[in-house]
Amino acid sequence: MPSISVSPIQRIVSSTGNVVTGANRAAAVTSLLSGSPANAVNVGNAPLIWPQISKFDNDNNTAFNSQPNPQFLWTQPVPLPGETKGFAARSSNIPLSVGVFGEFVIAMAVFADNAVTAHIQAVDDLGITILPVPTGLDVDLNAGSLNPNSGISPDNHFPYNWQNVRFYTIPVSFGLLNAALNLSFVFSFEVANYVNNGATNTAGLAFVADIYQSVLTLP
């Protein structure tokens, strides 16, 4: 009988080595797909109170546990109150042959100060969006309002929006392929740094995304 196994493909963590920034999410994606080098800045846990996305101390996922924890990123060392910025990262190419089922599962966790819209899309090796778009992709995932004045109201009391770490898991199916395909996944984000009504204003983005592929084996 046919059997199905799950293979780990890649873990992507936010890093100065893989994230391209832009004036907004669309600009960051365009720069990424046009070959611009990574240019995000590691701002660290700037206020020292951000929740951190961290591995378990005894992480036994041997496919991914060598990856470091995500870095907190922004476009420059000192953020400006009220600014919105875009960020994008791309997975490695995943070759698929004719006659195979393109089945994946993506799991993602995201932190942002103050609010973020996240987006996952699939592109071919030329950076062109793959059509038809599988269910779960090309969807804006919202975590708080991107209106920078939300820091004045309503996000002006505990628990603040930045205290949440958002998570998302989605199966992605390209169906039975009738043509060979090299695909990759693009993870992009638009992050708003609220206008604050206090002395401290920090901004940052951190994320991790795991990609798994379901493999159908025929007897």
Description:
There is one protein chain. The longest helix is centred in the N-terminal third of the chain and has 9 residues, at 25-33. The protein has one helix at 25-33, and strands at 3-13, 20-22, 41-42, 73-74, 84-90, 94-96, 101-113, 115-124, 141-143, 166-176, 181-192, 204-217. It has one domain (3-217): Jelly Rolls (Sandwich). The chain has 1 helix and 12 strands. It is mainly beta and 219 residues long.
Average pLDDT, to the nearest integer?
Answer: 94
What is the percentage of strand-forming residues? 35-45%
- Unreliable spans: none
**Share of helical residues:** under 10%
The CATH class label is Mainly Beta
* Rounded Rg: 18 Å
The assigned CATH architecture is Sandwich
Distance between the termini: 6 Å
Order of H and E elements: EEHEEEEEEEEEE
Q: How many distinct helices?
A: 1
Number of strands: 12
Structural class: mainly beta
Largest sheet: 6 strands, antiparallel
Give the overall form: globular
- Look up the CATH topology: Jelly Rolls
What is the total number of structural domains?
1
